[in-house]
Amino acid sequence: MAPFIWTRALEYHYVAEDGRSILALRGIDLAIERGEFVALIGPNGSGKSTLARHFNALLVPTAGEVWVDGLLTSDPRHVQAIRQRVGMVFQNPENQIVAGTVEEDVAFGPENMGVPPDEIRQRVDEALEIVGMTDYRHHPPHMLSGGQKQRVAIAGALATRPDCIIFDEPTSMLDSVGRQQVLQTIRRLNAEIGLTVILITQSMDEATLARRVLAMDGGRIVLDGPPEVVLESEEMDRLGLGRPFAAEVARRLRARGIPLPPGLLTVEQLASALCTSV
Amino acid sequence: MHIRVENLTHVYAPGTPAARTALRGVNLEFGPGERVGIVGPTGSGKSTLVQHIAGLLVPTAGRVLLDGVLAHARTPEARARRHQVGLAFQFPEDQMFELTVFREVAFGPRHLGLDESEIAARVRWALETVGLDPEVFGGRVPLALSGGEMRRVALAGILALRPRVLILDEPTAGLDPRGREDILERLRAWQEETGATLILVSHHLDEIARVVGRVIMMAGGEVVNDGPVRQVLCDPEGLCRANLSPPPGVVLLEALGAAQWPVRMDGWGAEEVAAEIARTWERIRKPDAEPSGS
What is the DSSP-derived secondary structure letter of residue A169? Predict the structure, then answer.
């Protein structure tokens, strides 16, 4: 079976506001399978968001091709079908809220798609249940915390029944409690309902949640592999991305002669490896 | 500038069903030249507090004094004090509108009525301070810059006003790790050069801990902790009470402590945490060795 998302020699070129010509993506060949959890990392301006916007036809390639579930994104007849399959959740939950109550907000997407009212009700119920916001269904969204608003935004994306959601730095404006709520929700969506997840993040600790990490630099994918391999690679220093905190401590401990296995990315993994090392 | 916050209470939409108390009797003092972090979960009152310090809100009760002058008063003295307080909200670059970087940074100084040569000197100094070469960036279009560069331009626009108090809300949000580190380092250097007061509002405690000496922790509109950064960060229970997660280094030391490792809880950076673990590891691996220093 063909991959869920497939790009071939994808290039994207645009003219900036001051007239300079910018090649934002330089030949991307990538396949993402259904049900994958992919973290997309890289410095500002490396092309992460530009690449992700090609996955739901918000952008179309200036050269090469992008296929989503067998549909060519540059064919205008497919745009609606592609957007139905691939949803997006952005950085700032404030900009994604459109209605006066939580459930109206979640119903907005399916209503726009012309889904019959009975089914909308069912979808809203399910989506709120999955993100743990059922108790707030009649609340005005602006009274919620940042983490709760972002979960409502996720429920809104889910109510259109996508196969995949792209999360573009969804936690960067949240406090630590909100961050944990949102990350747990994302993890559950992937593990329990098999949603394909693409998580764009500037936090290497968040990237450890994925099962595959893509690192971009200058419009190219420069690293692609499991988090244990990518997040510990020397290349991460050159990119200025640093490492997950635990990996950084583990590296400094190895340098001090403490024998530790590779691939320690979380504080829990490092603590238990240390306890078995003595 | 000396900042004094006395019994400050702020209620939004008072007397309506939507009334919300954002600050409850807050008392604080900031000395000249302090570097202070204000942390706390969303809705804890951080943003309301800093808007009062900038004189942008009128207290429901209590007051804010800037060098002894009521911050929100409509007097020339108060206005002069307020002009010396620079406040940038999150994503300040969203408010840029000029056609060149030079004009964008010059906007504030021009508004102050300075002459052209003074304006040009301030713009150059401000751009250099944030790490942008004035020759390269001065003529560029702000909206065509990268996110990190736009943030720097917005920051330069405030620095060009030569504030004696600079308050920044989440100055590193949305920047990559290298950009975050660089901006914080430059803010620290700016503060050391000018002796101004620097107040950083952030969710990211461990990040601002490298710049500030003092941390004020807020929760539910009140100050729940105020002290040296080390004391606040190495108190996981206090952090939890304010709905904040301790830095991962503190979590790691705590996990080892729970596993009976005799670690000291007094650091959070990767290097100090690694050093403490290595010291402890040596000790517990050779149980017959004399424990040092106790």
Answer: S
If one compares A196 and A18, the residue with the highest pLDDT of the two is: A196
Contact between residue A189 and residue A158 where contact means Cβ atoms under 8 Å apart:
yes
CA distance B157 to chain A (A): 20
- In a mutagenesis test of the B interface, which of A245, A260, A265 is the best target, namely the one with the most B β-carbons within 10 Å? A245
Contact A241 B141 (CB under 8 A): no
- Determine the Cα–Cα distance for residues A86 and A263; give it in Å rounded to an integer: 31
Q: How far is A76 from chain B (nearest CA, A)?
A: 28
pTM over 0.90: no
CB contact under 8 A, A175 and B278: no
Q: For chain A, what are the domain ranges? A: 5-243
CATH architecture of A5-243: 3-Layer(aba) Sandwich (3.40)
- Token couple for A266: 């979380």
pLDDT at B89: 86
**Do residues A200 and A168 touch, judged by C-beta distance below 8 A?**
yes
User: How near does any CA of chain B get to the CA of A19, in Å?
Assistant: 9
Mention every residue, 6+ apart, whose C-beta is less than 8 A from residue B16: none
- Domain layout of chain B by residue ranges: 1-84+165-177+197-243, 247-287
How many Cβ contacts (< 8 angstroms) between chains A and B? Answer: 115
Q: Is the pLDDT of residue A89 over 80?
A: yes
Q: ipTM of this predicted complex? A: 0.84
In sign, the C-alpha dihedral spanning B57, B63, B64, B65 is: positive
Q: B213 — contact with chain A (CB < 8 Å)?
A: no
Indicate the average pLDDT of chain A: 93
On whether the B1-84+165-177+197-243 domain is CATH 3.40.50.300, my answer is yes
A196-200 and A37-41: which strand pairing? parallel
Per-run averaged pLDDT (10 residues), chain B, 294 residues: 98 88 97 95 90 96 97 95 92 86 95 93 96 95 87 95 95 88 95 97 86 94 93 85 84 94 89 95 73 46
DSSP secondary structure string, A114-165?
A: T--HHHHHHHHHHHHHHHT-GGGTTS-GGGS-HHHHHHHHHHHHHTT--SEE
**Chain B residues with CB inside 8 Å of A246's CB?**
248, 252
